[in-house]
Amino acid sequence: MLLGTKLGISAFILALLTVVLWFYLTSQVALPNDRSGFVIAWVVSASLAVFALIKGTTLLGGVPPTLAIIVSSFLTFTIYISPQKVEMASVIKVGDIIPQFRAVDDSGGRFDSKSLNGHLVLIKFFRAHW
């Protein structure tokens, strides 16, 4: 097996493992505020994949590094274009009265925050990275 193919497979495995970790943390609502570790892993993966292609691979051996470049570039780009900034003046604190809003519930029905009046309620909003 050519060195470039081995490096390309390593780059793809690194990209894949970090993507799996990313989606696991997303499902647990536990993404870190500082996401630079993910970006570094994806940049290393893409760089390793480019180096693998430069070193030389077989036609089939070029698939893993190409996928690593695509996946790493896409996810790094999504982090870059969608920073999650919170304006502290608009943060609702524990005990505050929430502004009135309407939304669609998990059954597809309409939900109005007026229906919560007079009840103690915990509402947790979570926005995935993208």
Task: Explain how this protein is built.
With 130 residues, this protein is mainly alpha-helical. The protein has a domain at 3-81. It has 3 helices and 2 strands. It has helices at residues 3-27, 36-55, 63-81; strands at residues 102-104, 110-112. A two-stranded antiparallel ribbon has the order 1-2. α1 (3-27) packs antiparallel against α2 and α2 (36-55) packs antiparallel against α3. The longest helix is centred in the first third of the chain and has 25 residues, at 3-27. The radius of gyration is 21 Å and the shape is elongated. The two termini are 38 Å apart. 18% of the residues are buried. The model has no long low-confidence stretch (mean pLDDT 84).
The gist of it:
With 130 residues, this protein is mainly alpha-helical. The protein is built from three helices and two strands, in the order αααββ.
Q: Layout of helices and strands, plus pairs?
A:
Layout (H helix, E strand, L loop, with lengths): L2 H25 L8 H20 L7 H19 L20 E3 L5 E3 L18
Antiparallel strand pairs: 1-2
Classify the secondary structure makeup into a structural class: mainly alpha
How far the N terminus sits from the C terminus, by CA atoms, comes to 38 Å
**Mean of pLDDT:** 84
Count the helices. How many?
A: 3
Strand numbers in spatial order across the main sheet:
1-2
- Series of H and E elements: HHHEE
